[in-house]
Structures are given as C-alpha cells and as structure tokens.
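Quick start: what a row looks like.
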Amino acid sequence: MSLVQQLGPHLPFLRRYARALTGSQKSGDSYVKAALQALASGTHELDNMPPRVALYRLFQAIWGATGARLETAPEAANSISERVLRIPPQHRQAFLLTALEGFTLEEAAQILDESAESVRQLIARAQVDIENELATDVLIIEDEPVIAADIEALVLDLGHRVTTVATTRTEAVAAVRSRRPGLVLADIQLADGSSGIDAVNDILRGIDVPVIFITAFPERLLTGEKPEPAFLITKPFQPETVKAAIGQALFFHEERPVAA
C-alpha cells in the first residue's frame, strides 16, 4: 500500500484536529500542509507506528518545531488570544486528541511523546480550564428525539442553556429570530427532508455564531473542496467528544461582522 493510500483516509480528520487546535481553518490547514511537505521532501519521516498515530505525531513535531505560535499568530484577535493564554497548548492538545479525535491515552502519549499518566493529567487540567469559560444559550437542530435528549443533557451538564430543540430548517430559523443562541449544534438530515446545512447557512446570514455539526454523514462536509466546518462530530458519538467540541467552539469563536 502506498503512502498516499495509507494516509489519505486520515487527512480530513487531521485537518479537523488542526483547525480545532489553532482555532482557525486557515492556520490549521497551513500546519497540515507544512507537515505533508516535510514528509514529501524527506526532512521528516513517519515513525514505526500505526499510520494515523504516526501522521498525528508528525503533525505535532511540525507544530512544535515552528514554536506553536498560536498565541502570537496575526490572524488571532485579542479576545481569542486572551482565552488561548488561559489554556496551555499542551493541555489543549491532550484533550483534543482523546476527546475529539478518539485516540486512547496510550496513543495520545505516543503522539505527544509523554507518558499515559501525564496525558491523563493534562486532560483533567484542560477540562477544568475549558469548563470555566462562558456559559451560553444553545440551539439544537436534531430530529431524532432520543439523540436530541442526549445532546441536551450534555449541554446542560456543561452549564449551558438550551433555548430550543428544532427538528426542521423552518423551526431552526424561527428559533433564532425568537432568541439568539451563542452556539448551534446541528444535524444535516432533518425530519421533513430539509437540510441542517441550509438551516445553518440561513442562520449565519443573520448572525455570527459557532456551529458544531453532529451527523452520520461527515463525508458531505469533509470534501476538501470548499470551506469546511472546524467542528464536526460523527454519529454515533461519544459524550466526551461532544463536550470537547462545545468547549473548543466557544473557546475559539470571535464574532465577526455579518453582511446586511
């Protein structure tokens, strides 16, 4: 099997991790590109590990070698920089690798070149740091009652408030007009055949709000051909994965002007 065949399936998820780590699609994609260029040029090689673990370890080496300049990147606005400074990068990496990317403690330890116990401690510190951030109002767009109830319970457990559980595009847009949310959690395929993607696009035309897609069809969004969501969770999901994504989405979001 060629290197492209080995690594190809993992690249969309590495981009997801890089974007969550840096808080930016542009910055995250640049680091992924740098890692792949280093691999292609022969300046770095994959370690003798499972391909996905080795790929993420290579990414971490590149990110660290450049100084991991997240705190001083020009694209990071002041409010983001202030929040980032409250979360040490190593804590954030350990948390994302396990909760968002699904690596075991042992795999995350290999990627970060740490012991499993050290990674466990880093995750615990990150959870405290992130959960101390701002509570907000959350709109859930989900047509399956059981899944919606599970997501709502997770949101409430983190100290946030659920404004509405919408099951269609129309309900979601109406809910935002009634009460502006600070976060949207959206499925793609909704009850009446409408699209969660269209609902989110409608919402984003009026307000700037962080969005997390929770879907059984991630391939519809991770195409590599157009702007992709920084936060995407695949069903069936793990509770800690949703909690990690919520923390990161709120942590990194900074409101931008929306065209009238």
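That is the whole record. The first helix runs from residue 3 to 7. The longest strand covers residues 161-166.
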